[in-house]
Write a structure and sequence with these properties.
The complex is a heterodimer of chains A (112) and B (400). Chain A is an alpha+beta fold. Helices cover 20% and strands 37% of the residues of chain A. Chain A has a four-stranded antiparallel sheet, covered by helices on one side. The chains are: A alpha+beta (112), B mainly alpha (400).
């Protein structure tokens, strides 16, 4: 099992959600996050004084899937979140040791 | 007594009263959320403290019988002789009480204006004691000098609705306080971003609205002069909001909402001394210049390095000074300024500017030092970092 974390622009949430749902993903966790990459932050101006705001609002979408579905999901998510501009975000894939469904006690792929 | 004038001035007094909670919103939105209540409290409590002081002794010091051109006597202390008739009233068309309460609202907002300079770093106790003494030793004499039969009015200085009494005095006091109190912790290293600009815009709108009472009411009658002051007030404010955002656009590439609100306040301040002496077209010129000038004025603190938190010096100090001088240039109604061939008026205005700045600055320094010595003005560093809302008032503005 793998966890796919997609950190991208907030307005792309719906596109990514639809893309993943069409591939049969039945659950995901979405978090509003702040951060910066190469894009950096942005500038705000108050009464002529400039302030550098380092952290840009983004969303993080987390899904856990079976190993064999990872390549397909990453490809579709990447396409859905793409604008071509700096700040599109990143996708992280990491191994997951175990998943347990609390209600039934199922584990592993069954619990996803 | 004229009942129409009475009705008009009572409504104007109510409009001016509304400016103070408007100011509370204007200032409150500009500070960080941990200091919103303490900042709002600065304005709101002046409605309590200044009003009571005004009735007890402030009104008498301002409008009591003249003593050497410097201060009023105690004739009206505890509102003795200030009644429902016109007896003793400086305006013989108005009940004495009406005149007194209209002037009271000016006394309320002036110390509240200063609080923008020391927002986010003054103990509430220090603020209350400082403001009380300042009202009696700075505001009341200034008010007497200009409107109460004192030397500045006798000299012929023109101040229709309080350029010197309200704005220059608070601007000079703000500069003194900012210098004496020092910078907020972290100033210049971390951003002090306004926590709620919509609140600030609402406050600016209320100020604009209330200012019609401030300036038109200063005609002290429901007459053509009041109409002129109303129109000049509106035109100068509109022009200043425009010119500020244009200056900002040219300077920084964007027009900001805070710039529009600040420009409007700058226009209101600048037209205040001139409102009843200039034509609407002159008011537009005054407003256009005031917007650009005060936009430049707020840059001063970056250059000189003092922390005037909410730009009282740049907007009220500079705007009031410009307005006083502009009155000497543009006056054409009931007085003649430079453009009407009377250069002397500009000189008189200049003298009043220097005297106002000098007196208010020096007296503020003395009062500040005395209060600081006795009860202390600045909270502990830890309290300042935690925020004044919790440490001074045991409350927080938002539960998010």
């Amino acid at each position: 099992m793998k966890k796919i974390e997609i950190i991208t622009r907030t307005f792309k949430l719906d596109d990514v959600k639809v893309a993943l749902s069409e591939l049969g993903v039945t659950g995901m966790t979405v978090t509003e996050v702040k951060g910066f990459g190469r894009q950096g932050g942005h500038k705000e101006v108050y009464r002529g004084a400039e302030y550098q705001v380092d952290f840009v609002p983004k969303i993080k979408i987390e899904v856990v899937v079976e190993d064999e579905r990872v390549a397909e999901l990453v490809r579709e998510a990447k396409e859905a979140a793409f604008t071509g501009n700096v700040g599109d975000g990143k996708i992280f894939v990491s191994p997951v040791d175990e998943v347990i469904r609390i209600r039934t006690g199922e584990t592993g792929d069954e619990a996803i | 007594m004229n009942p129409v004038d009475n009705a008009f001035i009572l409504i104007c007094a109510a409009l001016v009263m509304f400016m103070t909670p408007g100011l509370a919103l204007f200032y409150g939105g500009l500070v960080r959320n941990k200091n919103v209540l303490s900042t709002v409290m600065h304005s709101f409590m002046m409605l309590g403290l200044a009003s009571v002081l005004w009735a007890v002794v402030g009104y008498s010091l301002s409008f009591g019988s003249d003593i050497g051109g410097l201060i009023g006597g105690m004739d009206f202390a505890f509102l003795k002789g200030v009644g429902m008739g016109v007896e003793g009233s400086p305006a013989d068309n108005l009940p004495h009480l009406t005149f007194m309460i209209f002037q009271c609202m000016f006394a309320v907002i002036t110390p509240a204006l200063i609080s923008g300079a020391f927002a986010e770093r003054m103990k509430f106790s220090g603020f209350m004691v400082f403001s009380a003494i300042w009202l009696l030793l700075v505001y009341a004499p200034m008010c007497h000098w200009v409107w109460g039969g004192g030397w500045m009015g006798e000299m012929g200085a023109l101040d229709f609705a309080g350029g010197a009494v309200v704005h220059m005095s608070s601007g000079a006091a703000a500069l003194a306080c900012a210098l004496l109190l020092g910078k907020r912790k972290g100033y210049g290293r971390e951003p002090f971003i306004p926590h709620n600009l919509p609140m600030t815009i609402l406050g600016a709108g209320i100020l604009w609205f209330g200012w019609f009472g401030f300036n038109a009411g200063s005609a002290l009658a429901a007459d053509g002069l009041a109409a002129n002051a109303f129109v000049t007030t509106h035109m100068a404010t509109a022009a200043a909001a425009l010119s500020w955002i244009v200056a900002e656009w040219v300077h920084g590439g964007k027009a900001t909402t805070l710039g529009a609100a600040s420009g409007a306040v700058a226009g209101l301040v600048a037209i205040t001394p001139a409102a009843g002496f200039v034509t609407p077209m002159a008011a537009i010129v005054i407003g256009l210049i005031a917007g650009v000038l005060c936009f430049g004025g707020i840059m001063l603190k970056n250059r000189f390095g003092y922390d005037d938190a909410l730009d009282v010096v740049g907007i009220h100090g500079l705007g009031g000074t410009f307005g006083a001088l502009a009155t000497g240039v543009f006056a054409s109604i009931g007085a003649e300024g430079l453009f009407m061939g009377n250069a002397h008026q500009l000189w008189v205005q200049f003298v009043s500017v220097v005297a106002t700045w000098g007196y208010c600055f020096i007296m503020t320094v003395v009062i500040f030092k005395a209060v600081d010595f006795i009860i202390g003005m600045r909270p502990s560093e830890e309290d300042e970092v935690r925020g004044l809302d919790v440490t001074q008032h045991s409350e927080t503005g938002y539960q998010l």
